[in-house]
Amino acid sequence: FALGIMPYISASIIVQLMSIAVPAVQKLQAEGESGRKKITQGTRFLTIAISLVQAPGYLASTVVSVPGAVVNPSTFWWFSAVMIIVSSTLVIMWLGERITDKGVGNGISLLIMIGIIATFPQALIQEFVHPDSTIYFFLVEIAFFLIVIGASVALVQGIRKVPVQMAKLQQADNMIPSGSGARSFIPLKVNSSGVMPIIFAQAIMFVPLYMTQSESLQGNAFLQSLSDFNGVGYNVLFFFMIVAFTYFYTAITVNPNQMADDLKRQNSFVPGIKPGRATAEFLDDVLSKITLPGAIFLGFIAILPAIVFNLGLTHSQSFSIFFGGTSLLIMVGVILDTLQQIESYLLSRHYDGLMKSGKMRSRSQSPVGGLGG
Asked: What does CATH list as the number for 104-362?
């Protein structure tokens, strides 16, 4: 299980980007359930391909970094080792899909979350028993950690409600006058991109790290500064890349023109805004305004572990990573999404919901379940 579920995540990201840029994949999405099955099958095959590429690289790095770990790295050994690693990834993928089909929540997301949470108790214990830690300092850390979780929940759930009204309703032979139609709203998410901007930015920020592995570039001070995860240069560039990718990913996943056309076909409108192009421009303007604070907040959450560690608010780096970044956002998103599905399951069987106010029902999708929010 050396590669874990990451090949499947990489394949899902690639397929999601293809669904935006490749017309053939867009057509499959429009076919409904049959198209979704074909896309899922394609994701599985792409997972196998990625695993076949990554497995030899992992084995090669292990053989080099741990001399003597393999006594006789023959061709049969390489073939067997690669097949075992690839098969292990497929077993995890199969398990995740079975959880999705037969259980509650997104199986892959739950497996990722479990992997993250599994390291939390050890990190917490290490922080508590650290020689420089005191009970009061530890309690302050926990309080700050809870505040960060609350802020992450606000980021994941934050929406701007754009009011929508139907132009008219027809009941029997009576026409209800315009302005008396049913009212609803369009929920525009503050963070429509989920954790994707962080994933993209991290992928690019690994390039300087790989470059410093070269003997000719090992002494390059600039590249070294961009390879230090806790360094100022790395985190400043990381922050601005996340802000830029948030705008980019939101622009390609949220289409105001399509939303305006859908409203027009449904005989609905935004009060005070003309249908059609004016509505699209209004929605685009609203989306741009709420994306800026969402992008800044997402960037801040991403670099918060480095800030916390550098300021000495934690004594161990293994504990500081839980104060933000992809790990925290994934945990929050998956938990909220799973609770929402449990709520829907209970309500569908006429049980009382987890919250009598019904707030759980309005929760948005996990940023992990769809990999993009």
From this structure: 1.10.3370.10
